[in-house]
Amino acid sequence: MPTMTVGNGAFTPATNQDCLTVDSQTAGVFGKVVAIGWGGRLTTSTGYRTRWTRPTTIGSSTFTALTPAYHSPNYATMGSRVGTFATAPVLATDPAGNLWAQDWNAQGGMGMVVMPLANPWWFVNGILTGQISCRNVAGTDANGSSYEVTVEE
Q1: What is the 3 state secondary structure string of 101-151?
Q2: N or C: which end of the chain has fewer CB within 10 A?
Q3: What confidence tens digit (pLDDT) does each residue in 28-78 have?
């Protein structure tokens, strides 16, 4: 199965915009998130809170794709995509609907979650919005954090 890892790190996160969005994009696309990660590189102790959730309303308008790293040399194209939307997805108020949420310290704090084989986060175009959002509830320092997702189709 084609697999890609996509990260976002050279940006300024906002609490009203996704750090990244996994988007099924077109009809028939069916995939799963198999791992997520986050990390900080600030030089002072700063509390962040990052959540992963399904939007209640999908992101739309201009899509800015993040560059994927494909895990298989024979699969360099996937139906899904990862990036950000000009019109951010609408999320339920934290903590409602969280697939994962983490309070962490951006002064060297980091984490990674690898999903159980039998319980990844599935996404299907047209079902449960077909998107998964990663967004900060707290933490907006420029170039102070990074976020990563591994997707398999």
Answers
A1: EEEEECCCCEEEEECCCCCCEEEECCEHHHEEEEEEEECCCCCCEEEEEEE
A2: N
A3: 899 999 999 999 999 999 999 999 999 999 999 999 999 999 998 888 889
